[in-house]
Fold this protein.
Amino acid sequence: MLPPYAALALILSFTSLALAADQPHPAITSSTQLSQMHDAIEGLSGPNASTADLQQAARQLDAGLDWLNANRERMNGSPTLLNERVNLQLARAEIHARLGRKDEALAALEDMQTLVWLPQLRRALREAPGFASLREEPRFKAVLATAYVPERAMQTKALATIYKEALSLEERVAGLSLFWAEARHGFAHFDNVPALNWDKVYMEYLSKVITARDTREYYRIMLQLAPLLRDGHTNIYPPRELMAEFFSKPPLDTALAAGTVYVRGVHSAGLAARVQVGDEIVSIDGLPVTQYAEQHVAPFASYSSPQDREVRLYTHQLLAGAAEKAVRLGLRGKDGALREESLARSGWTDWQAPAPFSFRMLAGGVAYVDIRHLESDAILESFRNALPQIMQARALILDLRHNGGGNGEDGLRILGHLSAQPIPVATSYARIDSAVARASSGSYFHWLPIGGGEPYRHAQKHPFTGPVAVLTGPQTYSAAEDMVLSFRAMQRGVTVGAATGGSTGQALHFPLPGGGNARICVKRDLLPDGGKFVGLGIAPQIEVHATLADVRAGRDPVLERALQAVSQ
């Protein structure tokens, strides 16, 4: 999600603020009328507008601004109304410029900048024909310069140095300082780490990065910094040149169930002869598997909830390491016999990842859809291609157990095929920290609503009406988790499985020295009813967990229970 003011209509159009010539100009008396004004006055400020048309549009804009000025206290507490004032002043500036009223036009632009400094304005002001008469005016140039201030003040490109074997002391300290400062001023979930002293962390890591011998060691230190914030959408990533050093792994899928770590999937035909689904992992590189995970994986794992931590340690990152270093696994097979396998972390040419989308019909006329991510238009297209069969099915099971997220809009579009009603969504907030308030009253966080809360409205008039079950688990993450919370709020069916990962939001991305990059979660999402789920997860209505015995027997108890639920 963009910052509140980045969604301003002023970036989109200069021709949407006009009033039909034969309409009167009643005073604006409500925010509803203000919103309707954009549609009601379309046409008059187009490129062929007459002087009378432009004058009429200017009067209507003045009416809107008069209402906002009369409701200034209300406006100051509403991002939407603040955006409206900026939009109206920008449109008013263009119309006055076209009417030859330079002073009025410049005053409108300057008034607009009392509310927002927006870098995107520069291109619009430089290129929009309506402002041509102002471009040599010193006051206009000052407006352009002010619009550039946020980019110049928050510029991080100077720190985005290229990869080299050893970073300078200045680069190492600057990278740490940037991540620490961005988190300090924007991180949305400090309440999930109440005991964390972020300033103390900075001092401790300062000494560490100062003594780092090379870029590899520097990023090994930095990769342990982000996990201290306990958030799955807050991470540090090494340069591309070092990715294989940290994240190479054999083509195995592992998991933890009831205290036992086991092989859940083998994604290489060449490896399948040596390692089988259901093999228990007893040790890694000579250490008991849980000890290995705590010592060698946990320090590098960014997670939001206990179940998310379990997945990070025993599924996503358990076998990750340097590409050139094999990993030794102590395995116990179904027969109880122990053996050891040394597996390369690289060089596997027959890696076969699970399909991101699959559909099949189950017994009893139940449609089953497995969606592994929401990161491409192909997923939504695949779902729509399966719709004719889904619509004929008696029931639907939607499997999101391994869905790591992506585009939340696509998740809502899929849910739109399950109900004709508007779909509830999360409520979203941004941290607003005022230095003035800190100076006078001490530190506090002010949470500003930035969107969400309003149901998602769609055009599906003939949705699927049969029973629906959604399968969830700790790998149900981000946009997929948003999808689950909306499904629950729709009261459209049941959720079956385990709690979701408990992590969603909007990440602020920025580069780090040496080619690395980072992200920090800066948006706070709550359930539609205001409840908290980040750091907790969303519990299923029917809880079911697979055991090692289930895996070895080829059973899926979560899917079996969902079939029972939609058949009742």
